[in-house]
């Protein structure tokens, strides 16, 4: 039994990060949720664009700056139209950018829930001795790699750690301690299952 099974996991976060804003109506820090709507202010040759958030307690609005005092000539017409029409894909792109949100706020709450679409890209499940998982991500997520693998393969994190210590699980390119880090786009996980008694169950879970 020497077969290699390659599976691609396309991973998408389900819940947008929530910045914690000093709400002037509630009188303290409150989580805010994305409204999925933009506010566009075109004043002469300058354009400002914000993504609107609302306090989860009182619905007070907060504007997350996307463009500030941008020259109209430097803004593509299609992009401006997307802002003005509240394009869902564009709103999602900015709403899930936790790094940008953190640059303007002290605390941003991220959520670990993701959806995983699994697709076999090489090999046959019935011949598998080595499982190779390739991670593809629409955007960065905070979910640790060991939690992702444990959830999707239905095995414990301690077992994943043991497999890594025995060099039967290898992560590329992060290497040592990668299991404890956030899952990343382009990561490849190779797991030697040849001597694992529940090999078939793990393979079935890996392929969805």
In short:
By secondary structure, this protein is an alpha+beta fold. Helices cover 24% and strands 40% of the residues.
Task: Record the SSE blueprint.
Layout: E1 3-13, E2 18-23, E3 28-43, E4 46-55, E5 61-71, H1 77-84, H2 88-95, H3 98-104, E6 108-109, E7 114-122, E8 128-137, H4 145-153, H5 157-165, E9 169-172, E10 188-192, H6 199-206
Parallel strand pairs: 1-8
Antiparallel strand pairs: 1-7, 2-3, 2-6, 3-4, 4-5, 8-10, 9-10
Question: What would you say this structure looks like, in words?
Answer:
By secondary structure, this protein is of the alpha+beta class. It folds into 2 domains: 106 residues, no CATH class; 92 residues, no CATH class. It contains 6 helices and 10 strands; from the N terminus they run βββββαααβββααββα. Strands 7-1-8-10-9 form a 5-stranded mixed beta sheet. Strands 5-4-3-2-6 form a 5-stranded antiparallel beta sheet. The longest helix is centred in the C-terminal third of the chain and has 9 residues. The radius of gyration is 22 Å and the shape is elongated. The two termini are 22 Å apart.
**Order of strands across the widest beta sheet?**
7-1-8-10-9
Number of strands: 10
Calculate Rg over CA atoms. 22 Å
Helix and strand string, N-terminal first?
EEEEEHHHEEEHHEEH
Number of helices: 6
Helix content: 10-25%
The overall number of domains is 2
How far apart, in Å, are the first and last alpha carbons?
22 Å
């Amino acid at each position: 039994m020497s077969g290699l099974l390659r599976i691609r996991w396309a991973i998408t976060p389900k819940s947008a990060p929530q910045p914690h804003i000093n709400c002037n109506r509630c009188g303290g820090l409150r989580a805010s949720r994305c409204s999925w709507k933009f506010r566009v202010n075109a004043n002469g040759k300058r354009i400002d664009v914000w993504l609107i958030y609302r306090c989860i307690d009182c619905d007070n609005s907060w504007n997350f700056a996307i463009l500030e005092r941008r020259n109209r000539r430097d803004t593509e017409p299609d992009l401006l139209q997307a802002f003005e029409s509240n394009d869902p894909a564009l709103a999602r792109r900015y709403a899930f950018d936790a790094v940008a949100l953190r640059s303007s706020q002290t605390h941003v709450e991220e959520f670990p829930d993701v959806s995983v679409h699994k697709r076999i890209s090489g090999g046959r499940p019935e011949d598998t001795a080595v499982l190779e998982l390739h991670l593809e991500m629409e955007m960065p997520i905070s979910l640790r790699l060991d939690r992702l693998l444990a959830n999707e393969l239905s095995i414990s994190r301690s077992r994943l750690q043991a497999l890594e210590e025995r060099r039967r699980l290898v992560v590329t390119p992060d290497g040592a301690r990668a299991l404890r880090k956030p899952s990343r786009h382009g990561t490849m996980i190779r797991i030697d299952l040849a001597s694992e008694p529940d090999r078939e169950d793990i393979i079935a879970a890996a392929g969805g």
